Amino acid sequence: MQPRFDDPLLRPIVGKVMAGERLSFEDGLSLYRSPDLLGIGYLANHVREQLNGDTTYFNVNRHINPTNVCVAACKLCAFGRQVRNPQAYTMSLDQVWEVAGQGYVEAVSEFHIVGGLHPELSLDWFCEMISGLRERYPHVHLKAFTMVEIGYLARRSKLSIEETLIRLKEAGVQSLPGGGAEIFNERVRRIICDHKIDGEEWISTARIAHQIGLKSNATMLYGHIETEEDRVDHLIRLRELQDETAGFQTYIPLAFHPANTPMQHLPATTGFADIKNIAVARLLLDNFPHVKAYWIMMTPKVAQIAQRFGADDIDGTVVEEKIYHDAGATTSQVLRREELLRLIREAGRKPVERDTLYRPVQREEATFTVLV
Question: Cα–Cα distance between 300 and 242 in angstroms, integer?
Answer without folding.
Answer: 29
